[in-house]
Predict the structure.
Amino acid sequence: MLSVPAIYRFFLRQARQLPTQYLRQFWRIKAADDVRAAVATRNSRIRENKVKQLGKDARRLQSANGHKRYAFIRILDIAYGRKGKLKHELLEPFRFDPTLPLPPRIIPNVERSRPPVYTKPLSALLLSAYSRSGQPIKDALHFDHPTSLPERADPNSAAARIFGRLSKRREVNNRWRYWKNESLKVHPPLEVMGAHPGPSLTYRGLTGAFADLERAAAGPPVSRWIRRRHRELLERVPMLTAHSSRNGQVEYFVSLSDHRQSERVEKYLDEADLKWSEVQKNTRKQ
């Protein structure tokens, strides 16, 4: 196995050959961070695994530079937060809002029994077909009554009368599991656009990254093959727009870039999604 300095030099050579400034910068920084993490690890087995992963990432960049489709899609997904650590970092501000009031406890004397809170931006992302790879949550009522929650959770149901009410601890765990699983299915936006989102969402994401992505998808100087890969990526990068209403409330709308590859999500769209999509298209034309 090559030494860490040799792998690092090979990694940087491959990163310099990537087609866009954003990709070159992201992978240079990631290489430096990964090398520092590997060198600082005292456990020899863990350090060896980190060095192996570093070499694997370097070879993936080499394959991407050789126009291997899967490898290039993979490095785009990691660089733009569709996979890996960056995805969780981009999602985190949408999942929690310290300004919202806490819901009542399910178990009266247990503080940790409070159910999860669905913030406005997270709710918009969960309900839109634009921000998910599959079918979105059909109704906001599922936030209060998750589809995974057994009928026995309702004390007035027939199942509860026959088999007994579902344990409140199991109900708490079920609600949190549903919130976690569904929120992790969301494609996080790179930026929040439009009106200032207010104190409840100070998120700004990767400023300028979405504009760079659209430029790479739109046309030269990159090749047609590179443009197509960026257009495919735009299908998985929703645009979250904040709008201030007359009563001072901030509402969030989800859309997709006009530069994306296809219209594959249209079958999942509801009337509100389609209406908002038309408004966005007309606005861009003006």
Remarks:
- DSSP finds twelve helices and three strands in the chain.
- The first helix runs from residue 4 to 16.
